[in-house]
Amino acid sequence: MQPVVFDQADPTERGRAHGELWREPIGALADIRLALAVRRSRFGSTEHVQQAAGAHLPVLERHLPGLHAELLGIAEGANMSPEDIVVLNHYTDLRDVPPSAVGLPSSEAEQADADPGGCTSIYFTGVEGPVLGQTWDMHASAEPFVRMMSVAPKGTTQQSLCFTLTGCLGMAGLGQDAVAVTINNLSSTDGGVGVVWPAVVRAMLDAPSATDARERLYALPLSSGHYYTIADGRDFFGVESSGQRKVLTQVGPRAAHLHTNHCFDPVLRQHEAVPRGSTSFARLNMATTLYAQHRPSTLDELWTLLGSHEGAMQGQLCTHQDEVHGDDSFSRTCGRLAIRLRTGEVRAARGCSKNDAGIDLKMGRYNAPPALPPGKMSRFATVKG
Ligand SMILES: [Zn+2]
User: Fold this and answer.
1) What is the CATH code of the structural domain delimited by 121-362?
2) Distance, CA 306 to ligand 1 centroid (Å)?
3) Cα 125 to middle of ligand 1, angstroms
4) Taking the model in full, what pTM does it have?
5) How far apart are the C-alpha atoms of 385 and 380, rounded to whole Å?
6) How do the domains of the chain map onto residue ranges?
């Protein structure tokens, strides 16, 4: 999981280098996700999924032209169509886009109740200052494609250290100005055509502060729901979104914030459909219990928590639903990420905690945040709702 460095100043060249380097795994993952998108969405065919994916390209170009160029570069380097790279990047959101939003007829999804994947995110301020991290739970067949990459364009002071997949712009990570972003998927019923969500993450990581990152998020049209953890060592914002709405549900850099894959906000709950097989409630219960029991205060302790197999299968934070169902399209913890904001250190791993203890990385370009002024540390999770 050593990060690959993409330092090309030109975004198209940077994407092309990404696409060329990982051409084979990008093709394999794009095939997997295209097939899953047909199976788990209301689009009736691969052509319809690709058509819907294509509708997202002009929206990306209009709002984030540099990341649009990078995505086209990935497609070119990997010898794939831009539409297939959108499917690879935007798979979890595409499933929630109603075909009518792109003028297509609906068909019944074959397995709409299957666990769509998840993620458990945890933030707290401990003896090392603010730390945050997440498990990344996704269809188990995604695990071989998990990578770390450092985007550090020559001639700039920018760097984003991203947890990602081959062919993906980035899913979570840390930027040069100490803006960290983690993500939890939410299943929305008001989905539409929006900016592909990994580009939203990258745009936030580049921001000069958590406040700016939050404003960037608010300014972009989205396709479907996510919970975004945004922290920079001074501020903390937890934003839940659906396709059409964004709500700040958690704030406060000293509090502990836990989240899984269902909305806390009562209005957003009206616009979500948590799939029947979801482990989200069980994982949130387990994360809250483990947090209260262990009172983690360091990145090491957060890491142990994220890799926990305590409890019944349904609630384990290191999840193995693919083994429960005997189907690699079900959810598994495909990776973990943890960030110590004060120092710009990042720990990352691929797959189950039993198989990968993680690698420690450090940002090369990093404007460390000042220590939080003295004050009372909140040691308990403030889970709202
Ligand atoms: Zn495990």
Assistant:
1) 3.60.60.10
2) 10
3) 26
4) 0.96
5) 15
6) 4-102, 121-362
